[in-house]
Protein 1
Amino acid sequence: MNARHEFDVIVVGGGIAGVSIACELSRDRAVCLLEQEAALAFHTTGRSAALFLETYGNAPIRALTSASREFLTDPPEFWDSALLSPRSLLQFAVRGRGDALESLFHQVHELAPSAQLVSPTEAHALFPLLRAEHIDAALFDPEAMEVDVHALHQGYVRGLRARGGFVVTSGGVVALERLGEVWQVTSSDGSIRRAPVVVNAAGAWADSVADLAGAARVGLQPLRRTIFMLGLPEGADLARLPTLSDIDESFYLKPEGNQMLCSPADETPTEPCDARPDDLEIARALDAIGEATTLTTRHVRSSWAGLRSFVADRTPVVGFDATVEGFFWCAGQGGYGIQTCAALARVGAALVRGEPIPQDVLARGLAVDDLSPARR
């Protein structure tokens, strides 16, 4: 596979952003995907909590999420299993924050019409571990889902390969040089590949890749997110429980088999790295969980962490760089990469080809300027 050196597009990064846009572009382009690690999806994608929430994120994120639902509900030929399974969402507002939750409801209702405001008593009925006296109100989304991240990612990899795309692991980029109308891309093993277009889908490392290309950074900030697992009391029934989240993001809980996946929803600035969990954040989350629910165990069975990389406005950066020819950004997906990837890959592939954003995404209110690298 490494014998080939000439391509139409080289995609840097093997997480969900990279494999999805690479698969879309491979419909009519010769594509090579380069991943710095020995395995794809080693960092953020492989550590995602995997939720599909149309009420989550700003307006561009909600538009991209909504436009991804059809694909995730009925995936095409390269996916051999269902990608979504039911897992409703209950977001609550603590005492004194009911107005903020009502404002959120009005923001999300157009794209998520099934979402509904519920009383503290109704919220307790939906999530019996929640202390009704702790909250003002809650927002219930019965159509929220959880995503099989592994199946989603692997389907894109299968599609890329089936269309003739090349996947190279342990292929970290160490040099990018523009020679006439093509990029010369040198990997850490000394191998060289060339293409007119380089797609920068390197996640937390995207600004570092831009440095190699001579492009201005977009101001990506990797933020560490800690996740841990708690056991539950004997007889607890998680099968029908929704994901539970504080709208101010002091923590969230998601049932996982006979355990509860928990997070302090921390966003600690860090350098690009192999993230590790923060014990202090876990302790803080346990306190918040014990205050809001009757889940008072402090025995953590396992923990891990990942990176969520945002620019200042928390909207992805997708499009050609304004000053460096043939350098295309696909970065800054933050915590929304899994739920938006299907639509964002189609948008990105269309922009690489010089085509308009797909009409179904435009109809949901997304504009090119929302994603443009030039907005920085």
Protein 2
Amino acid sequence: MQRNHYNSSFKKETFPVVLICDNIINAPNIGSLFRTADAFGVEKLIFCGESIEFSRKVTKTSRATEKAVNFLLNQDIYQIVDNYKNKGYQILAIEITTNSKPIHHFKFPNNKPLAVIVGSENFGLSEDVLSLCNDSLHIEMYGQNSSMNVVQATSIALYEITKQIKGQ
């Protein structure tokens, strides 16, 4: 028998992962990032930037997960990253760069909390933000396109991170 939302119950678990979103402004993406953060048990979801609005589209797409996920709105990503660095978090970018490593080859530490940064829909992460990160990770792709939607990439990254943390 196929399981559904009413006969499926998953064990709630929180991982030492903070998701930092830099200038993500598309309402459906914001709502979907709430769902993704909830699904993968992130400790906190942080939206950085100036044009972030919580519209009806956000709440419709989030399916009420904005009520369950610990989140913060803050304009200054540099302050946020510095704060988490000072708390001992390993800072990771999900971005294709000349130095990025395939995410499935990266070994995530089980004794250090992580701050994962994802970038805007149109421009990704700036060089300034990338310079703050300990590592840049990318998702290997096999088609002609060189990028994917920020929510898809975040979901894949959080799946790999939580899979490794649970397996350690």
